[in-house]
Amino acid sequence: MKFIYQYPECNGIDADLLDSGPPADVAVALERTGWDGMAFTEHPVPGARWLGAGGHQTLDPFVALGHVAAVTKRIRLLTYLAVVPYRNPFLLAKAAATVDKLSNGRFILGVGTGYLKSEFFALGVDFDERNALFDEALDVLGLHWKGEPFSYQGRHFTARDVIARPKPVQDPIPIWIGGNAKITIRRVAERAQGWMPLTGPPELSVTARTREMATLDDIAAQVTVMREQAGDRGPSLAVAMAYMDETFAAPKAEVERHREAMGSMEAAGVTHLIVPAPSLEPSATIELVERFGADYITTASA
What we know:
Oligomer: single chain
Number of strands: 11
Order of helices and strands: EHEHHEEHEHHEEEHEHHEHEH
Number of helices: 11
Helix content: 40-55%
Radius of gyration: 19 Å
Strand content: 15-25%
């Protein structure tokens, strides 16, 4: 099992996202204590009502991960997740290639189709086109990263004999796709390197516009389907899932219970555990990173 720390999401508008501590300091602590990666999410222009009602603040994940890359040498850098239809696919490809190049091949492009209609409207993107734009981007990303001349006719652009250099370090940059829909499973099996399932209460699935997966049995069944569809690539596909039991952050957490829960997730096919950390004071954030490393990561490695 690999462990990825998701920088704390700051809910609402009364606090500031970086109250939990400078990302560079957190990243250095993660690398020192055995974590395998760090993740940032995104919402470039969410609705005020959504944010005020408990939605979360974000940084630009590509800029934030580039910042983190400069102070680390080992941990992987994940967008959890970037909303593909928000960007021209060439700009998305260039941002991903830049972080990968500057980090010496440590970037993972975690992506999704998005669900906040108001954000689509603000960015001038047709919400009903989001799946078509997503598939179009999957075409373009691979062509862009090859560093060879190519042409592509998109829905809203024409690219004739274009080329992108420098190439990223990885060939290709891993793409992990988030969501639970059947089309997501198919995309992962055919075109990506990893799956990021969404688990939680039914209302979460409704908000995120994806089907509900409430249990580890649900996840395990879909992992089996996905790997069978992927054929020879199946065993290599990553499955990155959030650890939603927030009691792990308590100073006197029931460590053995959490270890057992994490072991059950691994048995269901989860390869990477994404840990959404709570918003804390900077010193408490570092303390949590260190304690989690000692309680779970060192043990798992041993």
